[in-house]
Amino acid sequence: MPDGPPAPAELIRALTAARATTVADYMAAANAHYYATRDPLGAAGDFTTAPEISQMFGELVGIWIAELWTRANHPPFRYVELGPGRGTLAADALRAMARFGAAPLGIHLVETSPTLRAAQLARLPAAEHHDEIDGLPDDAALLIVANEFFDALPIHQYVRTGEGWRERMVERRDGALIAVPGDADAEESVPEMLRSKSESTIVETAPASAAVAQRCAFRLARQGGAMLAIDYGYSGPAAGDTLQAMKAHKYADPFADPGEADLTAHVDFTALAAAARPAGVAVHGPAMQGDWLRRLGIDARLKALAAAAPKRADELKGQRDRLVEASQMGESFKVMAFTAPGWPVPAGFAA
Prior knowledge:
With about 350 residues, the chain is of the alpha/beta class. Helix content is about 35%, strand content about 25%. It has eleven helices and 16 strands. The protein has helices at about 10-15, 25-35, 50-55, 55-70, 90-100, 115-125, 205-225, 270-275, 290-295, 300-310, 315-325, and strands at about 20, 75-80, 105-110, 130, 140-145, 155-160, 165-175, 175-185, 200-205, 225-235, 245, 250, 260-265, 265-270, 280-290, 335-340. The strands form three sheets. Strands 2, 3, 4, 5, 10, 14, 15 and 16 form an eight-stranded mixed beta sheet that branches. Strands 1, 6, 7, 8 and 9 form a five-stranded antiparallel beta sheet that branches. The protein has a three-stranded antiparallel beta sheet with strand order 12-11-13. The longest helix has 17 residues, at about 55-70. The radius of gyration is 21 Å and the shape is globular.
């Protein structure tokens, strides 16, 4: 077996060697290569996430955790993050949590990228890595954070054709990868209320995301705790093609240069909630990120930081606006929480 992930040209050949592949399998393979071979964040990368924009974001996540833990009567817990990037959010959150005495038994990061694991350990030397959720300890409550995690999980796409619903497949034609309708009937895979949509309509489902949400929810039901999911998305079911690629902070063709751009899709928060509820957890939200951050006190935190560093006041205000304002991340990004049976309603969600 060769060492390391395949090169992009090899990835294309692998994806199309025998037959067309589903959009989900294409996305999974391309993103596995992409994340295994680089640090995608920051000015030198392809995109920037909220924790990299401002320390206020991670600090408020930490305050959210500490406040919930306090009202749950200080149970022993483990901090868990899914897809933790460079570890920036975790470092900021843990620092804020410590001010309120919320000290986890351990820091657990679910991450498969060797490059990002190294960056995370540089910030969080005591962290323990896991390939899967199933590897997490079962001896304490779990407080789980998933920021811009679900959007990178693979999606299936279905398109209404003249012959009915078909799954979109990725195949190579004239040297390029394109998405085309498959041959098999796929109507049963399309949510019933969307099946009457007109020809050329695209519908997406995300069974991989639903599976992760459900596994986390059942862990919470058994062990106690909460999960916080933050991502750009919508309350479905809804039709539309949301698959997108980011390269050098610009949108790109998702089927060009596989493994060399970040592939994501909008998250259906209704589907996440439906997957979690069978575990018996309570679902809160989704709330708009801007509203949620305001309720947690981002403006008070901005005031304190600006007072401590007056020369950075304008910079800090710009960071706050990028996270909160509707024209930026404030409305497109949503926040949802799951809490274990018997745990209090978490802060930041409207009654």
